[in-house]
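Anyone able to model this chain together with adenosine-5'-diphosphate?
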Amino acid sequence: MVVQKFGGTSVADPQAIRRLIDIVQRARTSAGRGPAVVVSAMNKVTDGLLAIAADASEGRTEDALARLQGIRERHHAAARDLAPAEAAALIAGIDGELDGLAAVAQALGVLREASPRTLDVVAATGELLSSRVVAAALRQAGVPAVWVDARKAIVTDDQHTRAVPLAAETETALRTHVLREIEAGHVPVLGGFVGATVDGHTTTLGRGGSDYSGALVGAGIGASEIQIWTDVDGMLTADPRIVQNPRVVPRLSFAEAAELAYFGAKVLHPSTILPAVERDIPVRILNSRNAEAPGTLITATGAADGGPMTALACKREVTVVDITSSRMLMAHGFLRRVFEVFDRYRTAVDVVTTSEVSVSVTIDERRHLDAIVAALSEFGSVEVEHDLSLLCAVGDRLPREPEVAARAVRVLEEFPLKMISQAASRRNITVVLPQADLAKAMHRLHEEFFA
Ligand code: ADP
Ligand code: ASP
Ligand code: MG
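re: yes, here you go
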């Protein structure tokens, strides 16, 4: 029994959804039951929904409603094309969601403010719609699909827009709402990215969070494999938006995949690997437009015979916060107090370097930056630098072969590296450099290790 998660481009239009149906049917035939299907919103719909919230809360109600109409038409067209037999009911369901959303947009126009809780209600609409359409399309094709409301299946805390699933509650809910359907011979279809609090308030898991939902479902129902169907042939040796000819990495360890995802390989949401690791469930990244390609298989052990470096990843829009204080010298408890500040503002720190009297950290969440700087200023002088990026090279062989890390730094010698870090696992080497140098630096590293 497998879980198949399909990203935005894999459900973008009727043609893509027909490919999805094919892929689901093949999985069902080969496993004899299931699969569980998790879908993203149609490509770009989440961006559109967030733009609706922004437009509405800034008083541009007309623009918001025009956008909403575009989303409505796109889903209606898909419904008529893919599920003519039940189009009327499906369209009524779509309109129910979107009429609710229109009412929210009107209210935002009056309030002139969108709270995180409201943003979640808005953003969740994309997955709630796409999952209804996909379930109906599967039924039309003869697959016994049932729509599952993700708000019942994934239980989270109340950190709206980046909610954290509650493990025990979610497991119970998944057994009730997803596993039982599979046992009854059905194919459950649910939206990714979406959950709800114990009190029933809609939440979302953060941008790109459908991968995470897929993995949660996989762990919750004890799947034999979690498949992430996307628009590239697997995890690539570099970001394909920067390097034109990256290669597919056939095998990765969980640890490597987690590092790559964390440091910017968008093909996997950073939390995806966790549920898989806990249950030791293999994750496969596959291309829905090239379903025959082998993809990338991610397991506990990874590749036995990979190259010196496995893959590169990068993150843009990184900010460095640098705290210098003579009080740090020989003092214990200093770092604790520094990190308490980031903790208080729920801001994740990615890379840290320290010297005798200073500590530098990178963050990519800037919404509380001013407050953080104010709090840190009590300890010493604080400097902030923007427009940086983080470039990370990952490989399980790095710990055993220090020469590889040296080579990586050497090829980057022409760039002004603000920070260099090699974690205790030493599975990655990460540098922080000006954003303007990122593309060139990634090319250099790629040429060195993968040409
Ligand atoms: P989906 O909508 O299927 O979740 P995403 O857009 O979230 O797809 O992720 C897939 C994209 O991730 C690819 O199209 C690619 O541009 C980008 N990407 C960035 N780094 C990598 C990498 N190392 N390997 C593969 N894809 C990557
Ligand atoms: N639709 C959501 C997003 O665009 C979640 C996802 O696609 O994974 O962020
Ligand atoms: Mg994604």
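The chain has two domains: 2-231, 311-450.
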